Amino acid sequence: MTILLTSFTTWLPHQKSNSSDDLLNIVEKQNKYNCYYLRQLPVEIETASKQAIAIIKKIQPSAIICCGMAESRFQLTIESHARCQESYLQTTVNLTQLVSQLSHTSISNDAGQFVCEELYYQVLNYLQLNNLALPCIFVHVPVLTTHNQEIILPDFASILEFLAENSGV
Q: Which residues form a coiled coil (predicted)?
């Protein structure tokens, strides 16, 4: 039983790294969880979605956490849904229950209308079309600093534990 974790690479010249990938790098080094890391997806909708869905087919994870960077946010935010044109897909995860256990994480209703939202939509759509009842969330990660890592890392660990407990991992 495995949790799939995804992250993106940078997309703007001023970005030294992508905070979603920075977070997964730390989690991977801790080696506390049974995770598969699909790191540094390209910031390109079609390619990122195809790579993620191919890995889902290959490893058949028990849960999925897609991560992306949100430079303007100051805490972890878990996206409630993804939209593509007029279509909305909701996560099946009880976000209210999940966030109630976290000190530095909130629920967001705006995944950003960029590659993050499109990846989330495509993964949720794939799961729905294939009748796969896997917990899947998208977590936006603020720019990591030495100060906020002390708060963000425990929250992300709690997110991993919550999904593991609620997926049979």
A: none
Which residue from 51, 88, 59, 77 is spatially nearest to 139, judged by alpha carbons? 77
Please name the fold of domain 3-165.
Aminopeptidase (3.40.630)
d(CA 97, CA 88): 21
d(CA 34, CA 89): 27
- List the structure tokens of 65: 């956490």
Beta carbons within 10 angstroms of residue 57's beta carbon: 10
Enter the tokens of residue 9. Answer: 């690479």
Domain boundaries, the chain: 3-165
> pTM of whole model > 0.90?
yes
How far apart (Å, rounded) are the C-alpha atoms in residues 66 and 7? 6
| pLDDT of 54 over the 80 cut | yes
CA-closest candidate to residue 75, choices 109, 116, 106, 114: 106
Query: Could you tell me the CA-to-CA distances from 16 to 19, 71, 128 in Å, in that order?
Result: 9, 12, 36
Q: How many CA atoms lie within 13 A of 119 on its CB side?
A: 34
Taking Cα atoms as reference points, which of 52, 16, 18 lies closest to residue 37? 52
**CA–CA gap between residue 13 and residue 29 (Å, rounded):** 27
